[in-house]
Amino acid sequence: MPTPPDLVDARLDVADGVATLVLDRDDVRNELTGTKLVDDIERTVAWINAEPMIGALVITGAGRAFSSGGNVKHMRDRAGSFAGDVYEVAQRYRAGIQRMPLALRRLDVPAIAAINGPAIGAGFDLACMCDIRLAAEHATMGETFVNVGIIPADGGAWLLQRLIGYQRAAELTFSGRVIDAEEARGLGIVLEVVPGEALMTRAQGLAASFAAKPPRALRLTKQLVRSAARMDLPEFLELCTVYQGICHNTDDHIEAVSAMLEKRVPRFGGR
User: Fold this and answer.
1) Whole-angstrom Cα distance, residue 173 to residue 185?
2) Low-confidence winner among 78-82, 160-164, 212-216, 243-247 (lowest mean pLDDT)
3) What is the pTM of this model?
4) Judging by beta carbons within 10 Å of its beta carbon (0-12, 13-18, 19+), is residue 56 exposed, middle or buried?
5) Domains in the chain, start-ordered, CATH in brackets?
6) In sequence order, what are the residues at sequence separation of 6 or more whose Cβ sits closer than 8 angstroms to the Cβ of residue 212?
């Protein structure tokens, strides 16, 4: 397997077909606008998409937080990502934080957010960009942009209503309130709430169960699930026929069927 990319403010661990991206700026609670974490996320996605034997990505934070989102001190000082006139700020968003949702939209494998602590603002939206979210019991999260007089310009207003429906997303976004892990589970934002010490074991175990599937079929399934949200049924079914034709002509399909009939563990080669 090729060497994982060099990252600046995150670290990438790879084992058993699972890539685990750890946001590693605990000194600033893994904030996204004043660090190189967006670059690291983009670089990680590109590497995974080019490495066919990676079957899942887990994203978590080092230290106290999953991610605190934007740098509030920089907002106050009109510095960094928030400096300049309207045109300059818009350009910085396009060249900065908005690359994150676009990168994760391109990710070919399932992504799991392991929310180990506060996930606030853009940090919450990063979790929502993943396919599945698991939360530690003590985790909190919030679509808090309005509290500091801005909007969720990283795509949060688009993401959240697709997860939990317009009305519930509107209440969270308009109020800017922070919710605990159990409320997030009740709303359908997170799949499971687990003890903090068990979070990564559960996340990596779930990711490994995905990565154990036939690699091409898994990636095509990810593309299919994402495409379903924006296609009409006839066009979607036509896409299914093409993807299914690809799958039926893979060695891994034959291996999967043979292993099932022979009652043995399959051995997939990504072909």
Assistant:
1) 17
2) 78-82
3) 0.94
4) buried
5) 10-211 (3.90.226.10), 215-262 (1.10.12)
6) 17, 55
